[in-house]
Write a structure and sequence with these properties.
The complex is a heterodimer of chains A (240) and B (271).
Chain A (H helix, E strand, L loop, with lengths): L4 E11 L5 E11 L3 E5 L6 H9 L6 E6 L4 H4 L3 E4 L13 H8 L5 H10 L15 H13 L5 E5 L7 H18 L2 E5 L3 H7 L2 E6 L1 E6 L1 H4 L2 H8 L3 H9 L1
Parallel strand pairs in A: 3-7, 3-8, 5-6, 6-7
Antiparallel strand pairs in A: 1-2, 1-4, 8-9
Chain B lengths: L2 H4 L3 H26 L3 H10 L1 H10 L3 H22 L4 H21 L6 H8 L7 H20 L1 H9 L1 H6 L4 H27 L1 H14 L3 H26 L3 H25 L1
Helix pairs in contact in B: 2-8, 2-11, 2-12, 2-13, 3-5, 3-6, 3-11, 4-5, 4-6, 4-7, 5-6, 5-11, 7-11, 8-11, 11-12, 11-14, 12-13, 12-14, 13-14
């Protein structure tokens, strides 16, 4: 039986102002309930692809369907944890206000549960701008998962978190994935994360270079093709 | 006559009521204006509305209504040009408000003789607020207050981060458009009280005062409104006692509260 796709893109093209292409002819399909991880060198368009799937960036041409809908219509059913969140440190919004305003329909009890689960209860009334990088990332993770999204988009989500927090984070993501059978689309530079979690790997370098299971994709030849000289860095890492 | 007895006078009662209404709406909206770093927008719309006042003076129409029209037009133009050109918003506002002010001055030069309306619109004259003015201010302010209360979540998210606003289901472009219009209308309303020169003070000073002391958004909203209302009450009372221009004294009171907040925050940080 064929699994229905959670996401499909058809000839997706995105260009920045002045016509500089960022994504070219991306045609892919991500199965519902799977974990798909996007890999690629810096500037390959990974974040842009994620934002196009979220509807934050409008395609120059081509089509994106999320849960069979236009990305704008699918917003209540998806969650997003960005790589970076630039905030004015003087903005007087507390962690609780941020979560409440992001998800007005979610109960206070649920917000408190997630705050506790990610060790953020003590920060409930702290201003968002006063959090450390790791604490802010946890707040963003809570925002991303609070409404039990059918698709969770993660852009290098564990980048600002310490090792202990990283384990808690991946445990939470896997727990949600098992409990709700949601789809996860993640950008990651960490090949061990890709090998551990991915059902499908999408190799991106402005174009979709290759895609398949980690066993099919994480080969020295593919990595060389994708990263060029940078493939040596991973080879060195594997030996040590 | 003591100050309590003075507020039995109908003209002072109207002034106080108009001041309290605008002291509620301008600082409330001002929370979003300052968080979005759009203080110059307020200044620009206020100055651009001079062209509307001039049109009213020349045509015999109500200068408030023509100023409202020009204010909304300039607000919408800023919204469109921000999205259609590569010019920075502050430069766009600079271009539009100076052009509109220049047009206003040219139009006014066509009118001969003393122009009391112009002086009143430039510097405000809260003590001359008529029953009609009060009704207009109350009607518009009630609508604006209701909109701000109902959509404070959307306006906050837009001020915090556009991507977050989009992801939380907000139609960001549509809300921005209405925000620009509401801002333009509120500023023109405030001109009746403080005049073109000083109106943006109530939009900027009370929220800035509250921001210094508040630890939450709710605190900033309540603090901003309180600071605005106190400035209006204290300003009217002091201006009556010392016979100073009411609008200017209201702004000075707001500025004194701001200085107090700066000192208090500095003291708290060092203690």
């Amino acid at each position: 039986m064929q699994t229905r796709p959670a996401i499909t893109t058809t000839d997706l093209n995105v260009s920045y102002e002045g016509g500089v292409p960022v994504l070219q002819n991306i045609a892919c399909s991500i199965a519902a309930g799977s974990i798909a991880i996007i890999v690629g060198p810096n500037g390959s368009g990974k974040t842009t692809l994620l934002k196009a799937l979220l509807g934050i960036i409008k395609p120059t041409s081509g089509k994106v369907e999320v849960l069979g809908l236009d990305p704008a219509e699918a917003r209540p059913r998806v969650g997003y944890v960005p790589q970076r969140f630039v905030i004015d440190h003087s903005f007087p919004i507390t962690v609780y206000e941020f979560l409440r305003f992001s998800h007005p329909d979610v109960s206070e009890k649920r917000i408190n549960e997630y705050l506790e689960h990610l060790g953020m209860s003590a920060m409930r009334s702290t201003r968002l701008g006063a959090l450390s990088g790791g604490q802010l990332q946890r707040a963003l993770i809570i925002r991303g998962v609070l409404h039990a999204p059918e698709i969770l988009f993660l852009d290098e989500p564990a980048s600002g978190i310490d090792i202990g927090g990283e384990q808690t984070f991946y445990d939470l993501i896997l727990h949600l994935h098992e409990e709700h059978a949601n789809t996860i689309v993640m950008v990651s530079h960490e090949l061990d994360v890709v090998a551990r979690f991915a059902d499908t790997v999408l190799c991106l370098n402005k174009k979709l270079v290759c895609h398949g299971s980690p066993e099919e994709v994480l080969t020295p030849q593919t990595l060389q093709r994708l990263y060029g000289k940078q493939a040596g860095v991973y080879h060195h890492h594997e030996k040590s | 006559m003591d100050i309590i007895a003075a507020f039995q006078l109908p003209f002072l009662q109207k002034a106080l009521l108009a001041g309290l209404i605008l002291g509620l709406v301008l600082p409330f909206l001002g929370v979003f204006v300052t968080l979005r770093k759009m203080s110059f927008f307020g200044e620009g719309i206020a100055h651009a509305s001079l062209a509307g006042v001039a049109l009213g003076v020349l045509s015999g129409a109500d200068p408030f209504l023509s100023a409202l029209g020009v204010g909304i037009f300039v607000g919408v133009m800023i919204y469109i040009l921000e999205r259609k050109t590569i010019i920075a918003p502050d430069a766009l506002i600079g271009v539009l408000f100076t052009a509109a002010m220049a047009a206003g001055l040219v139009l006014l030069s066509l009118q001969k003789g003393y122009q009391p309306d112009l002086i009143s619109y430039l510097f405000g004259n809260i003590l001359a607020v008529s029953s009609y003015d009060l009704a207009v201010i109350a009607l518009f302010s009630a609508a604006i207050f209701a909109i701000l209360t109902i959509f404070r979540r959307q306006l906050t998210m837009l001020a915090l981060d556009r991507e977050s606003a989009w992801l939380s289901g907000i139609r960001t472009e549509l809300f921005d458009f209405f925000y620009y219009i509401i801002l333009s209308v509120t500023i023109v309303l405030g001109i009746k009280l403080l005049g073109i020169i000083l109106v943006s003070a109530l939009l900027v000073i009370p929220p800035s005062t509250a921001k210094l002391l508040a630890s939450s958004l709710r605190g900033m909203m309540i603090g901003s409104i309180l600071a605005g209302e106190l400035a209006v009450i204290a300003g009217l009372a002091v201006s009556y006692i010392l016979d100073f221009p009411a609008g200017a004294v209201i702004v000075l009171c707001a500025a004194i509260f701001f200085i107090g907040a700066v000192i208090s925050r500095t003291f708290v940080q060092h203690s």
